[in-house]
Structure formats: C-alpha cells, structure tokens
Amino acid sequence: MRKFQQLACIFLFFGNVLTAHCESTFDPALAERLGADELGMKTYMLVILVTGNIKDLSEEQMSKAFEGHFANMSKLASEEKLVVAGPFVDAKPKRGLFILNTSDKEIAKDWVDTDPAVVAGLLKYELYEIYSSAALMLVNETHQKIAQKSIN
User: What are the two backbone dihedrals, phi and then psi, of residue 65, each rounded to the nearest 5 degrees?
Assistant: First the structure.
C-alpha cells in the first residue's frame, strides 16, 4: 500500500506543478473534517455494480427496484456514506460504481445490501479498497450546487 501512496503523492505533486499551484494552501480544519492523511488522501471502498438476474422479474418489479435504487443512493449520500456514484456508459455486464466512505469491507457490504436493486437480485457487486483524494468527500456538496434537476 505504501508504494501506491507514494505514487499518488507523485501524481498529485505532478498535477500541482502542471496546474501551477506551487504555494501550499493547506487547511488543517478541512483536512480533519474530510478525514485526510498527510498526503490529503484517504481509503474508500469502490463498489462495481454488475448486472444480476433480470429474467425472473416483471417490468414493474424492475422499475420499482430501480426507483428504490436511486432513493437509496440519495439516502446514503445524505448520510455521507456514498461519496460518488455513476453508471458506466459502455462496459456491460458492469453497470456502474459507488465509492463509499469507509475502508471496512463489512460496513461497505452492509450499506450496499440496503439497495433495493441488489436485494431484488438485479444488481450484484464487487468490492475493492482504493486510496484516493479526501477531497472526493466534497463531490456531493458541490454537485447539489451545480445540478439544475434532481435524478429522483
């Protein structure tokens, strides 16, 4: 894991040089609020959603499950559990991803298992630990400021 942390640090430093942000603007209160380590990073769980069993459900059941899927994502986001979510454009049978605000696989499973599309078997999932910028925690807050319409 340490090699990945060093690579991430090099990448971030290289990115800072490219964007000419040479001065430190470290905000210790923000770093603490976001759970950042000394590199401004933290560990999350990446969830890859994969097509499950869609053959045994009616259109009405699938519609209801996916309606619940979007409502559940909104709930998890409002609880600061879901950091980022989105569909894949062209990667079937993989459907989309979640980035969850935990490094604990069991907690991530508990959160994903609340999804009605997972409960109905429409979606299965894979879990991976990732190390990324703690600034991802600001995505939901920022998204609310730029979205003109709600997904729900």
Answer: -65, -40
CA-closest candidate to residue 18, choices 30, 26, 10: 10
Give just the sign of the alpha carbon dihedral 11, 13, 14, 18: positive
Is this model's pTM higher than 0.85 or not? no
Query: Domain of 61: which CATH number?
Result: 3.30.70.1060
Q: Has residue 72 been placed in a domain? A: yes
- Size (the chain), residues: 152
Alpha helix stretches (DSSP H) within 24-146: 28-34, 59-78, 105-112, 116-119, 139-146
pLDDT digits (tens, 9 = 90+) for 72-100: 999 999 999 999 999 999 999 999 999 99
* Count of domains for the chain: 1
The answer to whether residue 6 scores a pLDDT higher than 70 is no
Per-residue pLDDT at 9 exceeds 90: no
Residue 151 lies in a domain: no
Q: Has residue 101 been placed in a domain?
A: yes
Domain that holds residue 122: 2-146
